[in-house]
Protein backbone atom coordinates (compact mmCIF):
# COMPACT_ATOMS: atom_id res chain seq x y z
CA UNK A 1 0.00 0.00 0.00
CA UNK A 2 1.30 3.44 -0.91
CA UNK A 3 0.21 7.05 -0.87
CA UNK A 4 -2.48 8.45 -3.18
CA UNK A 5 -1.38 10.94 -5.78
CA UNK A 6 -4.05 13.46 -4.93
CA UNK A 7 -4.76 16.15 -2.36
CA UNK A 8 -7.65 14.33 -0.64
CA UNK A 9 -5.40 11.89 1.16
CA UNK A 10 -6.84 9.35 3.63
CA UNK A 11 -6.00 9.54 7.34
CA UNK A 12 -3.45 6.74 6.98
CA UNK A 13 -1.13 9.07 5.08
CA UNK A 14 -1.64 12.07 7.33
CA UNK A 15 -2.40 11.94 11.05
CA UNK A 16 -1.95 8.15 11.18
CA UNK A 17 1.25 8.01 9.10
CA UNK A 18 3.35 6.90 12.07
CA UNK A 19 1.21 3.73 12.26
CA UNK A 20 1.74 2.76 8.61
CA UNK A 21 4.42 0.10 9.11
CA UNK A 22 2.28 -1.63 11.73
CA UNK A 23 -0.57 -1.90 9.22
CA UNK A 24 1.60 -2.62 6.18
CA UNK A 25 4.80 -4.24 7.43
CA UNK A 26 7.96 -4.19 5.28
CA UNK A 27 8.48 -7.84 6.23
CA UNK A 28 5.43 -8.76 4.15
CA UNK A 29 6.86 -7.35 0.91
CA UNK A 30 9.88 -9.53 0.16
CA UNK A 31 8.25 -11.96 -2.25
CA UNK A 32 6.33 -9.28 -4.10
CA UNK A 33 9.40 -7.05 -4.39
CA UNK A 34 11.37 -9.94 -5.91
CA UNK A 35 8.60 -10.46 -8.46
CA UNK A 36 8.72 -6.75 -9.29
CA UNK A 37 12.50 -6.87 -9.63
CA UNK A 38 12.31 -9.73 -12.12
CA UNK A 39 9.76 -7.87 -14.26
CA UNK A 40 11.76 -4.64 -14.20
CA UNK A 41 14.81 -6.55 -15.43
CA UNK A 42 12.82 -8.31 -18.16
CA UNK A 43 10.95 -5.19 -19.28
CA UNK A 44 13.84 -3.45 -21.04
CA UNK A 45 17.58 -3.05 -20.93
CA UNK A 46 19.05 -4.16 -17.59
CA UNK A 47 18.26 -1.23 -15.28
CA UNK A 48 20.65 0.47 -12.89
CA UNK A 49 18.42 3.40 -11.93
CA UNK A 50 14.73 3.11 -10.99
CA UNK A 51 12.22 5.87 -10.31
CA UNK A 52 9.40 4.74 -8.02
CA UNK A 53 6.34 6.98 -8.16
CA UNK A 54 4.02 6.77 -5.15
CA UNK A 55 6.63 5.01 -3.04
CA UNK A 56 4.70 5.30 0.24
CA UNK A 57 6.53 4.09 3.33
CA UNK A 58 9.30 2.53 1.24
CA UNK A 59 8.35 -1.12 1.72
CA UNK A 60 9.23 -2.14 -1.84
CA UNK A 61 12.36 -0.01 -1.92
CA UNK A 62 13.58 -1.77 1.24
CA UNK A 63 14.24 -4.79 -1.00
CA UNK A 64 14.73 -3.22 -4.43
CA UNK A 65 17.53 -0.90 -3.28
CA UNK A 66 19.85 -3.91 -3.13
CA UNK A 67 19.53 -4.21 -6.92
CA UNK A 68 18.92 -0.67 -8.21
CA UNK A 69 19.74 2.94 -7.42
CA UNK A 70 16.28 4.06 -6.28
CA UNK A 71 14.70 7.51 -6.43
CA UNK A 72 11.49 7.53 -4.39
CA UNK A 73 8.68 10.02 -4.99
CA UNK A 74 5.62 10.49 -2.79
CA UNK A 75 3.13 13.21 -1.86
CA UNK A 76 2.96 12.45 1.84
CA UNK A 77 5.64 13.99 4.06
CA UNK A 78 4.81 11.40 6.71
CA UNK A 79 5.42 8.53 4.28
CA UNK A 80 8.67 10.08 3.08
CA UNK A 81 9.88 10.44 6.67
CA UNK A 82 9.16 6.77 7.36
CA UNK A 83 10.87 5.69 4.17
CA UNK A 84 13.89 7.94 4.74
CA UNK A 85 14.55 6.29 8.10
CA UNK A 86 14.29 2.80 6.61
CA UNK A 87 15.95 3.60 3.27
CA UNK A 88 18.56 6.30 3.92
CA UNK A 89 20.51 5.13 0.87
CA UNK A 90 17.70 6.23 -1.46
CA UNK A 91 16.94 9.68 -2.80
CA UNK A 92 13.54 10.93 -1.61
CA UNK A 93 11.48 13.54 -3.47
CA UNK A 94 8.16 15.06 -2.45
CA UNK A 95 6.02 15.12 -5.58
CA UNK A 96 2.86 14.13 -7.43
CA UNK A 97 3.01 11.38 -10.05
CA UNK A 98 0.66 13.40 -12.25
CA UNK A 99 2.82 16.52 -12.41
CA UNK A 100 6.37 15.50 -11.50
CA UNK A 101 9.06 16.58 -13.94
CA UNK A 102 12.65 15.85 -12.91
CA UNK A 103 15.61 16.88 -15.02
CA UNK A 104 16.85 13.37 -15.74
CA UNK A 105 15.87 10.02 -17.20
CA UNK A 106 15.83 6.61 -15.52
CA UNK A 107 16.45 3.09 -16.76
CA UNK A 108 13.10 1.94 -15.39
CA UNK A 109 9.93 3.27 -13.78
CA UNK A 110 7.93 1.52 -11.07
CA UNK A 111 4.47 2.33 -9.75
CA UNK A 112 3.00 -0.06 -7.20
CA UNK A 113 -0.50 0.23 -5.72
CA UNK A 114 -0.44 4.04 -5.40
CA UNK A 115 -1.68 3.94 -9.00
CA UNK A 116 -5.04 2.87 -7.55
CA UNK A 117 -5.70 6.37 -6.22
CA UNK A 118 -6.09 7.72 -9.76
CA UNK A 119 -9.84 7.60 -10.27
CA UNK A 120 -10.35 8.79 -13.87
CA UNK A 121 -8.90 7.83 -17.22
CA UNK A 122 -7.54 11.37 -17.50
CA UNK A 123 -5.62 11.07 -14.22
CA UNK A 124 -4.31 7.64 -15.15
CA UNK A 125 -3.22 8.87 -18.58
CA UNK A 126 -1.37 11.83 -17.08
CA UNK A 127 0.50 9.58 -14.62
CA UNK A 128 1.49 7.18 -17.39
CA UNK A 129 2.79 10.15 -19.35
CA UNK A 130 4.88 11.10 -16.31
CA UNK A 131 6.33 7.60 -16.30
CA UNK A 132 7.10 7.81 -20.02
CA UNK A 133 8.63 11.27 -19.64
CA UNK A 134 11.20 9.94 -17.15
CA UNK A 135 11.96 6.62 -18.86
CA UNK A 136 14.93 6.17 -21.17
CA UNK A 137 14.18 4.86 -24.69
CA UNK A 138 14.35 1.09 -24.49
CA UNK A 139 13.82 1.21 -20.74
CA UNK A 140 11.12 -0.65 -18.87
CA UNK A 141 8.19 0.27 -16.68
CA UNK A 142 6.07 -1.74 -14.27
CA UNK A 143 2.58 -0.79 -13.06
CA UNK A 144 0.97 -2.95 -10.36
CA UNK A 145 -2.70 -2.10 -9.76
CA UNK A 146 -4.55 -4.18 -7.20
CA UNK A 147 -7.31 -5.01 -9.69
CA UNK A 148 -8.61 -4.36 -13.16
CA UNK A 149 -12.33 -4.23 -13.90
CA UNK A 150 -12.34 -7.86 -15.04
CA UNK A 151 -10.80 -9.17 -11.81
CA UNK A 152 -12.59 -7.05 -9.20
CA UNK A 153 -14.24 -8.90 -6.32
CA UNK A 154 -15.88 -7.37 -3.25
CA UNK A 155 -14.25 -8.80 -0.15
CA UNK A 156 -13.38 -8.30 3.50
CA UNK A 157 -9.93 -8.87 4.98
CA UNK A 158 -8.19 -8.19 8.27
CA UNK A 159 -4.71 -7.97 9.72
CA UNK A 160 -2.27 -5.88 11.70
CA UNK A 161 0.99 -6.06 13.62
CA UNK A 162 2.55 -5.35 17.00
CA UNK A 163 5.42 -2.91 17.34
CA UNK A 164 8.84 -4.53 17.81
CA UNK A 165 10.63 -1.39 19.01
CA UNK A 166 9.23 -1.44 22.54
CA UNK A 167 6.83 1.50 22.25
CA UNK A 168 3.83 -0.68 23.16
CA UNK A 169 1.79 0.12 20.05
CA UNK A 170 -0.31 -2.37 18.09
CA UNK A 171 -2.83 -2.11 15.27
CA UNK A 172 -5.57 -4.39 14.03
CA UNK A 173 -7.80 -3.57 11.10
CA UNK A 174 -10.79 -4.70 9.08
CA UNK A 175 -10.75 -3.82 5.37
CA UNK A 176 -14.00 -3.85 3.38
CA UNK A 177 -13.77 -3.53 -0.40
CA UNK A 178 -16.99 -2.61 -2.19
CA UNK A 179 -18.06 -1.13 -5.54
CA UNK A 180 -21.25 0.89 -5.02
CA UNK A 181 -21.61 1.78 -8.73
CA UNK A 182 -20.20 -0.59 -11.33
CA UNK A 183 -20.94 1.91 -14.11
CA UNK A 184 -18.22 4.35 -13.02
CA UNK A 185 -14.43 4.09 -12.65
CA UNK A 186 -14.17 4.00 -8.85
CA UNK A 187 -14.69 1.72 -5.88
CA UNK A 188 -14.21 2.19 -2.15
CA UNK A 189 -12.19 0.49 0.54
CA UNK A 190 -13.27 1.22 4.10
CA UNK A 191 -10.88 0.55 6.96
CA UNK A 192 -11.66 0.27 10.64
CA UNK A 193 -8.39 0.65 12.56
CA UNK A 194 -8.14 -0.47 16.18
CA UNK A 195 -5.15 1.32 17.70
CA UNK A 196 -3.60 0.21 20.97
CA UNK A 197 -1.04 2.29 22.83
CA UNK A 198 0.58 1.46 26.15
CA UNK A 199 -1.58 2.41 29.17
CA UNK A 200 -4.34 3.85 26.94
CA UNK A 201 -7.74 2.47 25.92
CA UNK A 202 -8.02 1.04 22.41
CA UNK A 203 -9.38 3.63 20.00
CA UNK A 204 -11.15 3.02 16.70
CA UNK A 205 -10.66 5.13 13.57
CA UNK A 206 -12.65 4.84 10.34
CA UNK A 207 -10.84 5.66 7.09
CA UNK A 208 -12.21 5.57 3.52
CA UNK A 209 -9.99 5.11 0.48
CA UNK A 210 -11.39 5.77 -3.01
CA UNK A 211 -9.71 3.81 -5.77
CA UNK A 212 -9.83 3.84 -9.55
CA UNK A 213 -10.74 0.77 -11.58
CA UNK A 214 -10.33 0.35 -15.33
CA UNK A 215 -10.70 -2.46 -17.87
CA UNK A 216 -7.61 -4.25 -19.10
CA UNK A 217 -7.92 -2.77 -22.58
CA UNK A 218 -8.05 0.76 -21.15
CA UNK A 219 -4.75 0.16 -19.41
CA UNK A 220 -3.15 -1.22 -22.56
CA UNK A 221 -4.47 1.60 -24.75
CA UNK A 222 -3.31 4.35 -22.38
CA UNK A 223 0.10 2.73 -22.07
CA UNK A 224 0.43 2.60 -25.85
CA UNK A 225 -0.71 6.21 -26.12
CA UNK A 226 1.95 7.28 -23.60
CA UNK A 227 4.77 5.68 -25.59
CA UNK A 228 5.12 2.19 -24.13
CA UNK A 229 4.88 -1.20 -25.78
CA UNK A 230 2.73 -2.89 -23.10
CA UNK A 231 1.72 -6.35 -22.04
CA UNK A 232 -0.39 -7.73 -19.20
CA UNK A 233 1.17 -10.25 -16.81
CA UNK A 234 -0.50 -12.31 -14.09
CA UNK A 235 1.38 -12.22 -10.81
CA UNK A 236 1.64 -15.14 -8.35
CA UNK A 237 -1.34 -13.78 -6.37
CA UNK A 238 -3.77 -13.78 -9.31
CA UNK A 239 -3.57 -10.05 -10.07
CA UNK A 240 -2.91 -8.52 -13.47
CA UNK A 241 0.02 -6.12 -13.71
CA UNK A 242 1.35 -4.23 -16.70
CA UNK A 243 4.85 -4.17 -18.12
CA UNK A 244 5.90 -1.65 -20.73
CA UNK A 245 8.98 -1.02 -22.86
CA UNK A 246 9.59 2.62 -23.75
CA UNK A 247 9.66 3.06 -27.52
Please, how many helices? 6
Largest sheet: 7 strands, mixed
Number of strands: 11
CATH topology of the largest domain: Rossmann fold
Structural class: alpha/beta
Radius of gyration using CA atoms only: 17 Å
Order the strands across the largest sheet as they lie in space.
3-2-1-4-5-11-10
Query: Given this structure, which CATH class of the largest domain is correct?
Result: Alpha Beta
User: What overall form do the CA principal axes indicate?
Assistant: globular
| CATH structural architecture of the largest domain | 3-Layer(aba) Sandwich
Q: Determine the N-to-C terminus distance.
A: 29 Å
Overall residue-averaged pLDDT value: 95
Order of helices and strands: HHEHEHEEHEEEEEHEE
Low-confidence stretches: none
Name the CATH superfamily classification of the largest domain.
Answer: Vaccinia Virus protein VP39
Total domain count: 2
- Could you tell me the strand content as a percent range? 25-35%
Q: What is the share of helical residues?
A: 10-25%
Task: Give your account of this protein's structure.
The protein is an alpha/beta fold and 247 residues long. The chain has 2 domains: 11-148 and 215-246, Rossmann fold; 149-211, S-adenosyl-L-methionine-dependent methyltransferases. The chain is 23% helix and 32% strand. The protein is built from 6 helices and 11 strands. It has helices at residues 20-23, 30-43, 61-64, 77-86, 121-134, 216-226; strands at 49-53, 69-74, 91-94, 106-111, 135-143, 155-159, 170-178, 186-196, 203-212, 228-234, 240-246. The strands form 2 sheets. It has a 7-stranded mixed beta sheet, with helices on both faces. The longest helix has 14 residues, at 30-43. The mean pLDDT is 95.
